[in-house]
Amino acid sequence: MDRRQFLLSSVGALVSAVTAKTGLDWRGKRLSAQETRIEEMVRGPSITLRSLADKVGIDIGAGGINTVPFYKDPDYKKIIAREFTSLTPGNAMKFGVIHPRNNYGDERDYNFEHADAMLEFAEASKMKVRGHTLVWHMQNPRWLDQGNFDRRELIQVMEDHIRTIVSRYKDRVFAWDVVNEPLTINHESIPIFQGIGPEYIPLAFRFAHEADPSALLFYNETQAHNLDEKSNMVYEQVCNLLDEGVTIHGVGMQMHVSLRYPPNLVQVAKNMRRLGNLGLKVHVTEMDVKTETIDSSTEDKLEKQAKIYGDITKVCLDEEVCTSIATWGVTDRYSWLKEFTKNPEEKPLLFDADYRAKPSYYAVKRKIAERVVKI
Ligand code: XIL
After folding, report:
1. Can you tell me which atom of ligand 1 is nearest the CA of 64?
2. Does the annotation mark 286 as catalytic?
3. Which of 46, 51, 266, 370: CA 20 to 30 A from 78?
């Protein structure tokens, strides 16, 4: 946000605050009591996203939480604790980070330091924690990727890994992304998948469930929110898992979207509903909206982004099956997309690089506030 936009948005906030106070809009038109309440909730400086989310019983999660700013930038933690009801570590629980060695065959092979620190912080801030992720094709340690394990050994490795982590955080991590992006990869190139075969999925769920029977277990996938071939495959796979009697509680829709490819709201809602009809929950697990994919002014991009965030919030509130929306990162200052897209101009999140609330933040708040008023 440049200075002019900042001023405009500050003026906007001020106008709304005055509006809410007087019950008149900026033209002097009287607002209904309901509209006034909504304005108060959206712009009231002491009303946080978190306090509104609590009122409607939905989780608003700070996902993709990164260790570097977590340790170095006090403002990062402040905003997470103030605005969000749950936290998902970005990397601290990934195989390569939490299980970097295979020398001893016991807990000495693990590095719990960062995951522990994030859990302690979340608990001190009265936030829930989503665990991400037990089995994925990326960010695995070299000893696993390049090890020469046979099938039986690989199952043992996966079992030890899952049991160690899930039981360590038993009753503290409320939901796990047990398998991440199972349909996105070239299985041939990854030993854990190639070596075990498709059975790694039911096995992973079984090990996780045995280690913490009260944790919610998710199948997390990317680019499978609209109705299409990929989301049909997710649907089919989770149907099969349920038929086999596997304990699975939900599907995670990552929701990495962009202004160029916004989600199709009708399809997302239908997709959520069909999963709900199976008795599953849906979490939006990693939402971000890439701005630098269309040609337009920054102001226009931020408004379009806000519409997408607001729309998905509304879909999630409308569909009972959807109980959590987490963004992947909190501030544009540290989004993973700056590196991933190699574009330092990316602004995918709810807070700008200086931690100021963006139109997207207010759009999410507004949709929740509208729901609060309707209750
Ligand atoms: C990303 C992290 O945010 C980055 O810090 C890391 O360098 C790469 O992985 N889908 C996922 C997440 O499931 O685990 C990824 O997280 C983003 C895409």
Report:
1. 3
2. yes
3. 370
